[in-house]
Amino acid sequence: xxxxxxxxxxxxxxxxxxxxxxxxxxxxxxxxxxxxxxxxxxxxxxxxxxxxxxxxxxxxxxxxxxxxxxxxxxxxxxxxxxxxxxxxxxxxxxxxxxxxxxxxxxxxxxxxxxxxxxxxxxxxxxxxxxxxxxxxxxxxxxxxxxx
Length: 147
Fold this sequence. Notes:
This protein is mainly beta. The chain has helices spanning about 5-15, 25-40, and strands spanning about 45, 50, 55-60, 60-70, 80-85, 90-95, 105-110, 115-125, 130-140. The chain has a single domain (about 20-140), classed as SoxY domain (Immunoglobulin-like, Sandwich), CATH 2.60.40.
């Protein structure tokens, strides 16, 4: 007898063998994700500007922009920009990896937000330092929690 993929997934989920991501992450989950990115180091505030609308009607498509003050030279540049959302099922939303050849330290993307929450942007610099900025947004129709 052959087991179809759909039947297997449904039975595994019913048995509790698959992780459930229906619940939103907590602020503690987001703090743990930030700690993992920082690797025991502290992030300074400043140099990172996160622009996100303060009020969004639908969390399925939220535009955000992150820029970091950096000369983007070989000796001093942004290596990565990490985005962490406190109220999403998985707090690590996205990571962008840059080099001195990127020209400027700025990214624009669209993300899904599971609820009204605070978003944190962390810049990892070539000298090993970390900088962060944050912004909060109010979501009227949540995403990520759909079944």
